[in-house]
Every structure is written in C-alpha cells, then in structure tokens.
C-alpha cells in the first residue's frame, strides 16, 4: 500500500480539506455536521514544506496516539 498521496506544492494551500474529506468518507454518517474534535481522526495528514506538499497516511494506532497528545 502506498502511504503517501503526492500533491502539487504549487497548488496546495494547506487548507486540510482533504483531511476532512478523508474523515467524512470513512464514517457511517458521511456528514460534516456530525464531526466533533473527538471524532475527527483523519487517515491522512497534510505535510507542507517549501518545495513539497504531501498527505501522509497514518495507521489507526498512530491516529489514536496523536489524538491523545492533543489538548
């Protein structure tokens, strides 16, 4: 499985809409209105640098660990 989704760095503005689309597409309700900070666990994470923009896949174990570290 490819764990990276490459994006065109010149077009990506870092809005993280792809993260929201990922969460909505993998939940039962498929509705943005039902998202809460507790249920927002995207399977991808946007990484943006000077010359690269990418979305990285995070396995479910890592997503839980990341969520536990957030305030």
From TrEMBL:
Source superkingdom: Bacteria
Domain 4Fe-4S ferredoxin-type intervals: 3-22
Protein name, as recorded: Electron transport protein
Originating species: Enterobacter cloacae
């Amino acid at each position: 499985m490819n764990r990276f989704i490459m994006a065109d760095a010149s077009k990506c503005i870092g809005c993280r809409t792809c993260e929201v689309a990922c969460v909505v597409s993998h939940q039962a309700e498929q509705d943005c209105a039902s998202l809460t900070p507790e249920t927002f666990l995207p399977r991808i994470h946007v990484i943006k640098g000077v010359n690269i923009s990418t979305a990285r896949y995070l396995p479910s174990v890592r997503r839980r660990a990341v969520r536990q570290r957030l305030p």
